[in-house]
Design a protein that fits this description.
By secondary structure, the protein is mainly alpha-helical. The chain is built from 3 helices and no strands. It starts with 13 loop residues before the first helix and ends in a 14-residue tail after the last helix. 2% of the residues are buried.
């Protein structure tokens, strides 16, 4: 239903939706950086924290894109994320474990 000047009844909705999307973008980035900084603090390697964060961002983006927007990804995309996850697995397996606190002490 058009009104004067070629506008519709839903034109007022444009600005609040843009503000909502901007707020969601800011919130998601804040949560991502919070988790990334916690991962940096808890991981033994910055590479490990970076790969984990990157892989989780790709996977969550793919799942949410599929659920919300009905997006599909090409085989090349899935191949790339599989290689990233394999690299993450190699990082976890090859990183030496920290010694237990009780084993490092000498017996007196």
């Amino acid at each position: 239903m058009e009104k004067y000047g070629g506008t519709t009844d839903c034109d007022w909705l444009h600005a609040p939706l843009r503000l909502l999307c901007g707020a969601l973008l800011f919130t998601c980035n804040t949560v991502m950086w919070t988790f990334f900084s916690k991962a940096l603090r808890l991981c033994s390697s910055t590479a490990r924290a970076t790969v984990i964060t990157t892989a989780s961002n790709f996977i969550s983006s793919a799942l949410l894109g599929r659920l919300i927007f009905g997006e599909t990804h090409a085989v090349l995309w899935w191949t790339g994320i599989s290689v990233t996850l394999c690299g993450l697995l190699v990082l976890h397996v090859s990183t030496p474990q920290s010694p237990h606190q009780g084993e490092g002490k000498k017996k007196e």
